[in-house]
């Protein structure tokens, strides 16, 4: 709980309020396809439609510094580091502006990649979806056939569709 003493009493701001502010800022970040709930409580809140702070965890240190951790799913094909930096900047600015606290740190965990329904360009397919990963995120409706892929096929193995995403050659092509 963030607490600020004043001449007239005390102001207290709960972590859930800060998570909602961060979640609202997160929803406007390009390249973010959704969020991943941290535990069963956030998963249940998402099912009940109370998902503004879903995928966001807030902790407050003894010195009132705020740590915000977000767990996101990015859209396939976007530069992941750029998306993460944008999330850090926008979430940090929104929390600083709303709460008035300058000591805000934002930590981004990229938990997956949302691959479009047609699969990855180059025949990469949708890859393996992570068990237990949500199929829709932070208010972003999912199109049929979309999934959350967490890693590409292992080196030397063929992805669905025949070609390995990192290998532009066609199956059976000897390169010569």
Automatic annotation (TrEMBL):
This is Asp23/Gls24 family envelope stress response protein. Belongs to the asp23 family. Residues 128-166 have a biased composition (Low complexity). Residues 114-176 are annotated as: Disordered. It holds the Pfam family Asp23. It comes from Thermaerobacter composti. It comes from the Bacteria. Signal peptide: none annotated. InterPro entries: Asp23 (IPR005531).
């Amino acid at each position: 709980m963030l607490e600020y003493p004043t001449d007239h009493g005390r102001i207290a701001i709960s972590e859930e309020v800060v998570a909602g502010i961060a979640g609202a800022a997160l929803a406007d970040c390009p390249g973010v396809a959704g969020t991943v709930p941290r535990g069963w409580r956030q998963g249940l809140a998402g099912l009940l439609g109370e998902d503004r702070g879903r995928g966001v965890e807030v902790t407050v240190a003894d010195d009132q510094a705020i740590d915000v951790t977000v767990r996101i799913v990015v859209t396939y094909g976007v530069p992941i580091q750029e998306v993460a930096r944008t999330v850090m900047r926008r979430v940090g600015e929104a929390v600083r502006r709303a709460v008035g606290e300058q000591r805000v740190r934002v930590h981004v965990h990229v938990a997956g990649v949302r691959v479009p329904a047609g699969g990855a360009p180059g025949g990469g397919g949708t890859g393996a979806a992570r068990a237990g990963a949500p199929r829709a995120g932070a208010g972003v409706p999912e199109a049929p056939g979309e999934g959350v892929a967490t890693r590409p096929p292992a080196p030397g193995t063929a992805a669905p569709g025949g070609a390995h995403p990192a290998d532009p050659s066609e199956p059976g092509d000897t390169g010569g």
